[in-house]
Write a structure and sequence with these properties.
This protein is mainly alpha-helical. It has two helices and no strands. The radius of gyration is 41 Å and the shape is rod-shaped.
Amino acid sequence: MAQGSDSNDTSYTRSPSPGSTRGSQDDMRKVMRREKNRIAAQKSRQRQTLKADTLHLESENLEKENAALRKEVKRLREEAKYLTSVLNNHEPVCTGLSSPSSDLLYGSHHGGFHQHIAVQHYPL
């Protein structure tokens, strides 16, 4: 086949005709549409990257917060264990605990109950 005789080949030049102006407008629209699409895809990828970075930072912060909270829970459990031990050691010598009363449940403001336990503060 001779060059330019293929009906699908648009690389050859045509002579200007009323229909060719329309063809070049269509080509320009395609080029513009492709450029807009390229820019939109680029922006979309940038947004996606930014979102991934933001989620990564948030994840790191939550992991740090979780570690700090776990550390605090551990400290509070140790403090509760220590205070339970102090209370258990004090119960046999405490005269105020010989009979259950509302003073133990509601505190000193309801009956003059006076607490006489000397407890060391738990080290932080």
